[in-house]
Amino acid sequence: MKTSTALKKINLEISEFEERLFDHSIVEITDEEGVIIYANKNFCKISKYDADELIGTDHRILKSDEHSPEFFADMWDTIVGGKVWEGEIKNKAKDGSFYWVKTIIIPITDEKGIKNYVAIRNDITKEKEIQERLLRMEDELLKQNVTLLSEVEKKSGALLKSERLATIGTMASRIAHDLKNPLTIIHTYADMLTPEILAKLDPQDREKWFRLQTSVLDMNRIIEDVLDFARTTEIKKKKTSFLSVLRLAMNHVKPSYGIVINLPENDVSIKCDARKMEGVMSNLLNNAVHAVDGQGEVDVEFASDSKNLTIKIKDSGPGISEKDLDKIFEPMYTTKTTGTGLGLVICKSIVEQHGGTISVSNKPTTFTITLPLS
């Protein structure tokens, strides 16, 4: 249907300016009920419908489900009231693609009232895509900003904690060094008591001597823990058998009759600082033996995939109280009467220096270490 013929049928006269406007815009004319009676070539091009397919239908043929019923109700209330409506509409083309148009709908009236509606539209699909992309980018940037702020807070907290620990470590190291020399003298003189001299002591004095020896060993262990905590030596990784690391760690575990320690049969080759990991394993095994308290079992398990080794140390002890569970890796926190609260902190530091993680869970008490294989 040609433009001039269609316009004559609805009794509209247009100027040359209006014809050019129609050529450069998306133009649609409907009757008073909203049934399409004219669609220009641009309307057909963007909607991908032929004019014959559009004429005789209403605008629901292009419905995209983007807009609510209230949106269209407001539009109709405006134009039925004889006012011009302006807005942005998302439509659905014949091939299922979507497009956005900036729309002006003008009611055409005569002496009887509204007889037609003329909709003049401009394609703003690219602008809307850019706008949506910018909104997505803004949303992503906001999320990244929140994440970064959270990371900064964590890093700041970790840095502050690290600085405090460094100060504590420096002070503790100086005190430990100062205590080590007189403690060595006490230990030396206590060892000078020969079996013949000890045999002449009465039972009470011998008991005091044994208690002195035990106290010296406990103090020496505490001092070594403090010095280990203060020292930050570089991790030296090399390929090694982790089962051999575990077996060497067993040499530092205090044996106890009635406690069975089950070691894994499988071995895993891993790149690590063998000496430091030996210290970690001996610390965790001694803790497990202490927790079992004279009767029970300690199980050590290995599991690996292509990237990581997972070590689990379980004990049959009574477990860790919930109030202690969250604090167990904090410096100076201990549930033992003779502990320094530094052993697990040192273990955590060594594991993290290897790029791994350490955690604890209850029922049964299980320390889980994950280490990268390389």
UniProtKB/TrEMBL annotation:
Biological-process GO terms, alphabetical: methylation
UniProt xrefs under InterPro entries: HATPase_C_sf, HATPase_dom, His_kinase_dom, HisK_dim/P_dom, HisK_dim/P_sf, PAC, PAS, PAS-assoc_C
Histidine kinase domain location: 174-374
Domain PAC: 83-136
Residue span(s) of domain PAS: 29-56
PROSITE patterns on file: HIS_KIN (PS50109), PAC (PS50113), PAS (PS50112)
This protein's UniProt keywords: ATP-binding, Kinase, Methyltransferase, Nucleotide-binding, Phosphoprotein, Transferase, Two-component regulatory system
Protein name in the entry: C4-dicarboxylate transport sensor protein DctS
Record EC number: 2.1.1.80
